[in-house]
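tokens incoming
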């Protein structure tokens, strides 16, 4: 009986203490759990923020892709329009080329038809010029029958226009006016005591007469 009375206060003393320790352990466990939950929640928030950032980046990337795709579609449409216009231009060019080829063939045909006529006219003109020079030579045209400088604007042979660098020169045989290049030959004519300028046609005629008549 005495032992039980002695043990009673001790049991009463230790039980609350054990409960307090157990409660403290439970509180400590709850605190640890709470901290773990807080860390997990913080990590979850960080993951959520990271996911939201990645999602925004993905959305921006998709928007850029859609914009680039639309730009490519616009380029394709523009190229299709350009191809259509080029095809139309090619058709017009082919038609124009065909027409020009036909005109060229017609022109060549007309040119070939008139070629002989032109050659005949050239021969007639050459004969006429030769006869004209012979006639002038027979008539004894000299300085008194020369062309007036103010009446002539171009060389009677090469048809080049006179100017400051291209001066006028008379042929002492026929009296026509030539440039220096076309009247560069000098011969001693009847009635002259030194070589004078003569045109090419007169030079040929004078030399031909000398060959016939002798020196």
């Amino acid at each position: 009986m005495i032992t039980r009375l002695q043990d009673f206060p001790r049991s009463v003393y230790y039980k609350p203490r054990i409960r307090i320790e157990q409660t403290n352990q439970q509180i400590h466990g709850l605190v640890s759990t709470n901290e773990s939950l807080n860390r997990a929640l913080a990590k979850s928030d960080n993951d959520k923020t990271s996911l939201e950032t990645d999602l925004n980046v993905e959305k921006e990337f998709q928007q850029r892709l859609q914009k680039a795709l639309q730009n490519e579609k616009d380029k394709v449409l523009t190229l299709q329009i350009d191809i259509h216009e080029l095809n139309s231009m090619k058709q017009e060019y082919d038609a124009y080329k065909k027409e020009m080829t036909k005109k060229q063939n017609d022109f060549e045909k007309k040119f070939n038809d008139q070629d002989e006529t032109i050659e005949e006219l050239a021969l007639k003109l050459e004969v006429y010029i030769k006869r004209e020079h012979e006639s002038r030579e027979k008539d004894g045209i000299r300085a008194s029958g020369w062309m007036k400088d103010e009446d002539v604007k171009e060389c009677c042979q090469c048809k080049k226009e006179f100017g400051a660098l291209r001066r006028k020169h008379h042929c002492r045989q026929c009296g026509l006016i030539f440039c220096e290049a076309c009247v560069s030959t000098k011969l001693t004519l009847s009635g002259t005591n030194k070589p004078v300028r003569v045109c090419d046609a007169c030079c040929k005629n004078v030399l031909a007469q000398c060959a016939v008549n002798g020196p």
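note: The mean pLDDT is 80.
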